[in-house]
Predict the structure.
Amino acid sequence: MVRLEEKVKAQADAMKSQSDTIRGQQQRIEDLTGRLIRLEAQLDMLMAAAQLKRLG
């Protein structure tokens, strides 16, 4: 019975560790998505400025 309890505890610890890892990865993905959106907005503004400069 003790071995079963040890296995269950080990499995629970592994699941918690995996959950923490997934949470960290999700945060990194959200941060990168935000950075990408900001870069895309900057690129759009620079392209618009270049277009205006070329026309003017």
User: Anything to note?
Assistant: The helical segments are 2-55. The chain has a mean pLDDT of 95.
